[in-house]
Amino acid sequence: MLARLSDSPVRELIISGPEMPQDALAHLQVVMQGAQGRHRDLDDPVEVLAAFGGFEVAMMVGVMLVAGSKRQLIMVDGVPACAALMVASQIAPAVTDYCVFCRSHGHHGLDQALGLFHASALLELGMASVDGTGATLAYPLVKSAAALLTEVADGDEPGPTLPGELGPESSVAHGSA
Predict the structure, then answer these.
(1) Burial level of 82, CB count in 10 A (0-12/13-18/19+)?
(2) Cβ(111)–Cβ(126) under 8 Å?
(3) pLDDT digits 0-9 by tens, 142-171
(4) What is the pTM of this model?
(5) CATH number for region 2-155
């Protein structure tokens, strides 16, 4: 789906896992390129989803669209999640405004997928892990950042404030630095 909707070569988006033999990777690339050839005329995101996606990816697309419409945070982790987001973003481009990209492992295809969104990952842990681990590990960080922005108050006024030296009464603001 990523390759079809972004005009990226399939070979740039797939990579073997540590235990995948090179001949299996070559076979995977042939199968994927064959599927791309069979469906070369598709460019509608829903048709691409129907041709290349599975039930799980279709569900992710739906969840992303609903979350975006409700202005909820979307934590994207892994190539399948990026593929779902590519479909969702072509249906409703504003959905990417609510995304945080997470990852816990290095993967060339994931680097390429993040590049399609002009995004960088919140975490870069370099762990050997599965998709979803980065989102799981990033969630407490995102939750803490949200709490800092919405719950931390300084003085008698509740709500977010600027750090002391950046407030309107600082010497820097008055040009005496």
Answers:
(1) buried
(2) no
(3) 999 888 888 765 555 655 555 555 555 544
(4) 0.76
(5) 3.40.50.10210
